[in-house]
Amino acid sequence: MQSRQSIQLRQHQQLALTPQLQQAIRLLQYSAQDLEQEVAQALLDNPLLERDEEYDTEGDAAEPAASHDDDGFREVSDLAPRSRDGDDDYERPEAAPAPTLRQHLMEQLRLTRATSRDRVLIELLVDELDDNGYLTTPLDELAALLPEELGVERSEWQAALRLLQSFDPPGVAAASVSDCLQLQLQRLECDASPQVLACAGELAREHLALLASGNLPALRRELGCSLDVLRDARQLLLRLDPKPGRGWAHDVADYVRPEVIVRKSGGRWKAFINPAVMPGLRVNADYERLIRQRQAGADGLQPQLQQAHGLIKSIHQRFDTILRVAGAVIAHQQAFFELGEQALRPLVLRDIAQELQMHESTVSRATRQKYAQTPWGVYELKHFFTTAVSRDDGDATSAAAVRSLIQDLVQDEPAAKPLSDNLIASMLAERGVVIARRTVAKYREAAGIPPASLRRAKARLDSVE
């Protein structure tokens, strides 16, 4: 059998992920903060890119006419901010960073007369503290980490721990909430009677779970105290801080800049892009002219020119896609902007994808970490997608609307007789929403509502005050 060589021409379609398409997909899934960082990096890497307002100085009518050089540019000294006292080196002072819990403890350690050996042990203990100031690692595990030839006895660890627990804030380096409260009670300066202090110590040591349950008769039987003493002891415990280290936890607040603003226009709610998040970019006209005229030394900038135009185009495509998706979502959820959470309609990604002839992944990228400013607050666009819950009349409502109904029912319940999940399911059925008790429990937990037993316990404790 002889083999033959032949040439065949075939035609087929294939989607190629060009660099431009990859960049557009990447920018679409970025949040507003991530996009700003990407733009800032591009401005540093590409000399052809500049912001729209960066060199627009001729339109500033509020300032007096400034001197210009021969090339028509304003002097750098005219653009610099003037100091208050005429000193060109004036700079606004920056606020000193707040100390961390570790720095606060190490500063107190420096003021003690502890030996160098004790200082090392205390530093090891400080490094094991969590953000709330608790020592979560047992001393035996810490001792096992040190070489045996150092000969560190358990009594040395205990002495170092006692010294650390004497530092500010009270309750630091405790192993549990019970230990933390007991440490604070030992250092508490108050005019409470010895009976109240003893009752508070016993509560913190043995009966925190029973106190949380709100079973006051059982507490009185265990403690053998009067109701007044129990009430005062509980108030004393409420004055303590179960998380002594959180005052030094400097979490930076994550601010959200909405990319979509929803407002009423022509009798309907519509989506508009927030101009504050639009990065105004352009290609430097002088550089582009030189490159296109192929002047000497400009040929090497041709790739940068293509990248600059490609980035600007991808950014415009990103906001155009977000606006189209947001507009379709808002058109489906008109009732939400009029009535609130309970008016949310069932909506899934597939509905928007079919309407806009997009892929579901594109809709997902355009709604994830993209926020809208609405009359009810700032919401992620993903919030408006919710599953359907059938009603007995054949219609459907959204899961978010059911959660909102549960929140309203719990908010209006009698404090002494909170609604159980079964009773909430019955009350929802009366409104046409038929769901199982376990579904009520799932939605209640998603809304951050504790079970009826804990709500009843809280009401009992509040009634003692």
From TrEMBL:
Biased composition (Basic and acidic residues): 66-85
Start-end of Acidic residues biased regions: 51-61
Keyword Transcription regulation tagged: yes
Disordered as annotated region, ranges: 46-102
UniProt xrefs under InterPro entries: RNA_pol_sigma_54, RNA_pol_sigma_54_core-bd, RNA_pol_sigma_54_DNA-bd, RpoN_core-bd_sf
Ranges in coiled-coil conformation: none
Cell membrane keyword on record: no
Residue stretches making up the RNA polymerase sigma factor 54 DNA-binding domain: 301-456
GO biological process terms on file: DNA-templated transcription initiation
GO CC field: DNA-directed RNA polymerase complex
GO MF terms, alphabetically ordered: DNA binding; DNA-binding transcription activator activity; nucleotidyltransferase activity; sigma factor activity
Domain RNA polymerase sigma factor 54 core-binding intervals: 96-287
PANTHER family tied to this protein: RNA POLYMERASE SIGMA-54 FACTOR
Function statement: Sigma factors are initiation factors that promote the attachment of RNA polymerase to specific initiation sites and are then released.
Identification of the protein by name: RNA polymerase sigma-54 factor
